[in-house]
Design a protein that fits this description.
single chain, two-stranded antiparallel ribbon
Length: 206
């Protein structure tokens, strides 16, 4: 499909009653598409897609359109949102350790590239600490410096490992045995039931 077809197809997956905070609806999207304002239409569809009832197919179409438009961050975000629907998402407030106190001395990418380990309170059969992997997206920031603090989104690689995680829980981030950062969970959203799709996804790195 070319970009207009992808965006038109995606718009058909948005419930008619859905609106953004600025009362933009699907009808407005069609107006932008009629005038070949594809980048604007894509951005507004991303806003309309924030509802939890949106199917992964919408994000897949938006990701493909963004890739054709060479909008790399939008493409990464759309792939990420698709993974959130299928794997669930944990939102948290993350504080990285300063450069002099941890292994990392350079910023982390904010677009889902990093897939660190997390201590979420699990133990191995031998009673030792067990960690689980979750990809990391930094909200509203392209990078996060050592010692920095930001709201983040985590997509678990294995959602079943995270079923006991609750808001208010403190978890630690690891890139090796040392602690790279500490996060306090603010929201937990379980994987959505996707009809006919038993897959689990890892966000695509960009």
């Amino acid at each position: 499909m070319d970009v207009p077809d992808l965006l038109e197809s995606a718009s058909l997956l948005v419930p008619a009653e859905t609106a953004t905070e600025n009362d933009i609806t699907v009808q407005d999207i069609w107006d932008y598409l009629a005038h070949d304002e594809w980048e604007i239409a894509l951005g507004l569809l991303e806003e309309l897609g924030d509802g939890r009832s949106i199917p992964p197919a919408l994000w897949e179409k938006l990701a493909e359109a963004a890739e054709q438009l060479r909008m790399e961050r939008s493409a990464a975000w759309c792939h990420w949102r698709c993974a959130e629907i299928r794997n669930g998402v944990i939102r948290a407030e993350l504080t990285l350790r300063p450069a002099g106190q941890g292994r990392r001395t350079i910023p982390i990418s904010g677009t889902g590239v990093l897939r660190p380990m997390w201590d979420i309170g699990d133990l191995s059969p031998t009673g030792e600490r067990a960690v689980s992997i979750a990809a990391l997206w930094v909200e509203n920031m392209p990078i996060l410096e050592p010692g920095g603090q930001a709201s983040v989104r985590l997509v678990p690689l294995t959602p079943s490992h995270w079923t006991h995680v609750r808001p208010g829980q403190r978890i630690t981030m690891h890139e090796d045995r040392s602690v790279a950062g500490t996060a306090v969970v603010s929201e937990v959203h379980r994987p959505a039931a996707v009809p006919g799709d038993g897959r689990r996804y890892a966000p695509r790195p960009y």
